[in-house]
């Protein structure tokens, strides 16, 4: 029996974490020939995840360059994927979310008339500049995609309003919840030794902040606010996992490098990051993924962005959309730190993003699309807000 040839393509650490459980599910399916292609839009951080999940790339573009521009990355991926598709022609590519890898690979596949499956489809902020360039990457990929794997009912509605046919949308939940089922452990020992020395009886704030639209004054405001919060709250410690991009890393080190009770760490692997999240008191982030991951673990989130393409958690009350205003960051963070009623309300474990079975639903949807089974899989039914 001829197998369905499926190529999973990704290039950044967050994509790799979310695609890893799906790749494992594809490998288990006897009716699918699974291949993995990495663009290495990020290199070192991507390799951490591949090693952790024991994934070997069949194709590796290795496009990362120092101080790379968006147009340069787009061009290198587009040309590189064309060369790969000349060597190996899949029946379907799977891309994830909103990266330049996602859009460029989808366009390259379209030029070769290869079908595109978009994992984590349908998220929208409705502002093309926030997040930048991710919002446009998502929308353009949505135009090119043949299969849309929407994590929530809200994401499905966004796609329907844009004219996507309902039969091409599959509500699956988010694969990041699947990944956390692999990584979070009760008696976890961190690989990063500094984390094993942290007193988690204190109020530990996990921080990530690196998005392009926050470069410059946004990151500076975030760092100055963190410095003030720690100075005013003696029982608080901050663990900031700092992105390797010098634009971010240099400014964080300049503002927070000598600050007591602030730990500046390199990017953590998936297990360390998820288990730190599980042990911390709360999260401050401009990441998209952490807005999904932290509610799964019952952790309040301060979102350091003005808009979000993940409104479900805002409506559920597990995240606060704060932006990068110095005074507002301090006010809203201290409200969570010091008001038990606010904290308890936010930590209520309402999780609209998944049940750990998203990867299985995606594989079943592929089998359905390629006539290997007769019935469309049941949709994920999360909390509706």
Automatic annotation (TrEMBL):
Keywords: Isomerase
Keyword Isomerase: yes
Keyword match Repeat: no
Domain of life per record: Bacteria
EC number(s) given by UniProt: 5.1.3.14
UDP-N-acetylglucosamine 2-epimerase domain span: 24-366
An annotated Gene Ontology molecular function: UDP-N-acetylglucosamine 2-epimerase activity
Family label: Belongs to the UDP-N-acetylglucosamine 2-epimerase family.
Protein name: UDP-N-acetylglucosamine 2-epimerase (non-hydrolyzing)
